[in-house]
């Protein structure tokens, strides 16, 4: 059947096929111990599936969205999940075509004009609920949103984000989709067709920052903006630079950094219009420097610009200021191959496979942006300074992605980063790494049987000062049991202390929020 693993498929691949929804909470079976002080909710995004009727998505990023929730209290764990793109799924199942743009969809499977989504966007006062797939990351307490959830729900809002200008507010209790909306709902300065990033920057005061990239109305234009209390305002406008696929807006306590790395968008090889992002990403150009624009969060405006080495990245680990310089930490790639080809669904469904180019290649890299105050000439024009790689770790020790830290240390000098990691070739991501930035060494949790692991979410132990005193919550598909688990790791020792067994396989997804 479409969406089901092929006979004989390795259980590690099950997370890349359609999996069942669990709309009502179920209590999970515990092995080991879940520390009693771990008390709260873990929300995770992971796909419901990639198949609908005779349609199959091409790329991991193009699945139908589902949200998941683990409620942890008194050493017990309950789990539930809810689809959030049912209208879209039903349309694709009926037609065999995907309506509009995607990350890497087959152009032959696109249909235009037959299926319309409505977003609350400042022009329209209400939006659909499930007509788009919105599944990359989450924002807690998006500025200006009502606390719209089931009675007695937690006093915060939950918003799912992606790399296009559409978000979905999610009920924090039932996970039901509430409404699709766009950044244009906060200001008419940002049109609905703009590109944006799934990881906005969140200030210590709750203000949200992001950018929109308009490539349809004249030369490519970036607008970097802040949202406070539901109202957006443009902080800087940048033109005269290439349009780039950017997944994360970096930030320090005082600045935003727009990284124009090696993912330039342009015409397709055939010159024809494409409705997917991958076809527009231009071939790797090793001679093209990356550009970094530094924007003042409070006063607005570009205050410094840097040119640096050629690289690509998805995610920020941490960025901070020190003695007038900025240090940016991120997992970097030295080609597009893994992103554009290695993450094709057909390849991931063959895991483990040493010949499929699916192995995680990114490594820990620290960039230095020196002398922020020297960014302007005497006449006030911005000069281009040089950004350098302060250090880069080896593939053995520094291989990581979907990185997390103890969030108490966001925007500060810090010591530890955590992420998914690869130990065994062909296994995509089979372990969790803890990187010690001071000693440039690492410690790895590699389970004794094959697991496919996801982003580790750090939970600090209450009342403790050590940066690594806490646990990591990791959802993982266990090949032996052919089911998913919520694994709890001691972040100090990187050893497992307990796990909760799900009755189902969770689709393999991206990010979580505690």
TrEMBL record:
<dbReference type="GO" id="GO:0016121">
    <property type="term" value="P:carotene catabolic process"/>
</dbReference>
<protein>
    <submittedName>
        <fullName>Carotenoid oxygenase</fullName>
    </submittedName>
</protein>
<dbReference type="InterPro" id="IPR004294">
    <property type="entry name" value="Carotenoid_Oase"/>
</dbReference>
<feature type="binding site">
    <location>
        <position position="511"/>
    </location>
    <ligand>
        <name>Fe cation</name>
    </ligand>
</feature>
<keyword id="KW-0479">Metal-binding</keyword>
<keyword id="KW-0408">Iron</keyword>
<feature type="binding site">
    <location>
        <position position="247"/>
    </location>
    <ligand>
        <name>Fe cation</name>
    </ligand>
</feature>
<dbReference type="GO" id="GO:0046872">
    <property type="term" value="F:metal ion binding"/>
</dbReference>
<dbReference type="Pfam" id="PF03055">
    <property type="entry name" value="RPE65"/>
</dbReference>
<comment type="similarity">
    <text>Belongs to the carotenoid oxygenase family.</text>
</comment>
<keyword id="KW-0560">Oxidoreductase</keyword>
<feature type="binding site">
    <location>
        <position position="315"/>
    </location>
    <ligand>
        <name>Fe cation</name>
    </ligand>
</feature>
<dbReference type="GO" id="GO:0010436">
    <property type="term" value="F:carotenoid dioxygenase activity"/>
</dbReference>
<feature type="binding site">
    <location>
        <position position="199"/>
    </location>
    <ligand>
        <name>Fe cation</name>
    </ligand>
</feature>
């Amino acid at each position: 059947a479409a969406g089901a693993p092929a006979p004989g498929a390795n259980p590690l691949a099950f997370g890349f096929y359609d999996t069942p929804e669990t709309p009502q909470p179920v209590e999970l079976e515990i092995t080991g111990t879940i520390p009693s002080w771990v008390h709260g909710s873990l929300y995770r995004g992971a796909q419901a599936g990639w198949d609908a009727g005779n349609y199959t998505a091409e790329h991991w990023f193009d699945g139908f969205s589902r949200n998941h929730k683990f409620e942890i209290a008194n050493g017990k764990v309950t789990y539930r999940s809810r689809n959030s793109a049912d209208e879209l799924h039903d349309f694709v199942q009926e037609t065999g075509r995907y309506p509009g743009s995607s990350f890497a969809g087959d152009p032959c499977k696109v249909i235009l004009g037959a299926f319309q989504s409505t977003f609350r966007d400042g022009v329209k006062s209400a939006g659909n609920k499930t007509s788009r797939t919105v599944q990359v990351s989450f924002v807690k307490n998006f500025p200006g949103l009502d606390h719209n959830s089931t009675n007695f729900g937690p006093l915060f809002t939950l918003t799912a984000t992606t790399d296009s200008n559409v978000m979905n507010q999610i009920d924090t209790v039932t996970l039901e989709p509430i409404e699709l909306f766009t950044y244009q709902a906060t200001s008419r300065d940002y049109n609905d067709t703009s590109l944006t990033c799934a990881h906005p920057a969140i200030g210590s005061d709750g203000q949200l920052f992001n950018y929109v990239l308009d490539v349809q109305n004249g030369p490519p234009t970036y607008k970097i903006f802040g949202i406070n209390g539901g109202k957006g305002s443009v902080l800087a406008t940048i033109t005269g630079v290439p349009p780039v696929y950017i997944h994360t807006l970096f930030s320090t306590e005082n600045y935003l950094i727009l990284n124009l790395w090696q993912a330039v968008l342009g015409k397709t090889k055939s010159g024809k219009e494409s409705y997917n992002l991958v076809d527009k990403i231009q071939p790797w150009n090793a001679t093209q420097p990356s550009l970094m624009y530094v924007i003042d969060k409070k006063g607005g405006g570009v205050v410094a610009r840097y040119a640096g080495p050629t690289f690509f990245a998805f995610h920020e680990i941490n960025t901070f200021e020190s003695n007038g310089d900025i240090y940016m930490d991120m997992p970097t790639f030295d080609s597009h191959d893994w992103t554009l080809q290695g993450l094709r669904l057909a390849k991931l469904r063959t895991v483990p496979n040493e010949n499929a180019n699916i192995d995680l290649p990114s490594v820990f890299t620290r960039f230095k942006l020196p002398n922020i105050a020297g960014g302007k000439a005497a006449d006030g024009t911005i000069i281009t300074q040089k950004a350098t790689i302060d250090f880069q770790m080896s593939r053995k020790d520094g291989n990581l992605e979907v990185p997390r830290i103890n969030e108490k240390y966001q925007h500060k000098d810090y010591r530890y980063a955590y992420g998914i990691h690869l130990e065994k070739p062909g296994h995509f991501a089979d372990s969790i790494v803890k990187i010690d930035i001071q000693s440039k060494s690492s410690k790895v949790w590699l389970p004794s049987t094959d697991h496919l692991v996801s982003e580790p979410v750090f939970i600090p132990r209450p009342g403790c000062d050590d940066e690594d005193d806490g646990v990591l919550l990791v959802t993982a598909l266990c090949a032996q049991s052919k089911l998913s688990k919520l694994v709890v790791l001691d972040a100090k020792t990187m050893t497992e202390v307990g796990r909760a067994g799900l009755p189902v396989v969770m689709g393999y997804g991206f990010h979580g929020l505690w």
